Amino acid sequence: MAPLISFQDVSKVFGSGDRAVRAVDGVTLDVEAGEIFGVIGYSGAGKSTLVRLVNALETVTSGRLLVDGQDVTALREAELRRVRAGIGMVFQQFNLLNSRTVAGNVGYPLRVAGWPRERRAARVAELLDYVGIADKAKAYPRQLSGGQKQRVGIARALATEPRILLADEATSALDPDTTQDVLALLRRVNRELGVTVVVITHEMDVIRSLAHRVAVMEAGKVVEHGPVYDVFAAPRERATRRFVATTLKDRPTPEALARLRHRHPGRIITVGIREGDGGSVDVTAALRAHGVDGTIVFGGITEIDERPFGSLTLELTGPDAAIDALVADLRGRTDVDDLGNAGVAA
User: Which single residue of 94, 113, 177, 251 has CA 20 to 30 Å from 150?
Assistant: First the structure.
C-alpha cells in the first residue's frame, strides 16, 4: 500500500536572496497509515514547519508532498480544504476559544463543516466522554487545568473523524504526570480509532513512550530515521546520540564512574540490554557459565515499543582469564564497554 503521507525531496524556504531561510531542506520521508510517527529536533530544526506543510498551513517551495494519495503541492484552495477536513491538529498552547464552552470548542469545526445541530451535539458528547471530560462540557477554558485543556484540544481535533492527527509539541506545556496521561490518550486514539498520529517534539521521552518510528531533524534536514527501538539501540548521528542520552541516563558519567571505582575494586563493564532475534542477553546465565561473580553497580532498563532497552554496569570478580572470556562472549551478543578497574580502563 502507498504511504499515507509522502515527502519527496520537499523543501520550504522563507524569504529570498541573502535573507532566505531554508527551514525544510530536501526531505524525503514516508508515514504509513495507522502508525504513530515521531519527528524530533531542537529549536529551529524545521520540525514544526515540516508538519505545517502536511495540512498546507505552509506551502511547499519545491518537491512533492502526497497526502492520502493527493499531491497537495498541486491543489487549489477549495481542494485543499477537503484535504484539511481529514487532518486534525493539536497545539502546544491548546488554541482554545476562550469565549466558548468546552462543548462549544469541540463543536466549532463541526459547525464550520455544516453539521446539523442534533448530530453535532451527539458527536460532541461522544468525544468528551471518550477523552474523559464529559463533566466539563459547560465549563470555559479558563476553568480547566492544562491537561484538561489538551483533552479538549484532542477532542476538537477528532471532531470531523480525521484519518491523520498532527500533534505539535502537544505535551510541552504539561507537567510529567499529565504528559503521561495525554500520551496514553494519543495511544488510545491510534489503537482504537485507527488514526495515524504524527508527533512533533523536542523530548526523546515522548518519542520513547509513544512513537513506532521516528525521524531526527537538524538544520532542516532529516539526518536519521527508522523504528524507534533501532534508533535508540544504535544512533548513528551526533544529534540522535544527544537525544538518546537525555532520556536514558543508564550509563555512569565520568564522575560517577570514578566513585564506582573507588567503592568497587573489581573489573567494571557496562552491558547493553537489547532485544534481538534471540531475545535479550541473559547476563546472569553468562556469569554462571564462565564462573564469574557479578554485582550490578549502576544501570537502568526501560521499555521501548514494549521491548526492554537500557544497560547494566557490573563489577566482575574472578580469574582474569574467565572475565576475559565472559566479556568476549557478551560482545558476541550485545555492546559491552570494558571500563577496567582501579582507575585504569581496559
Answer: 113
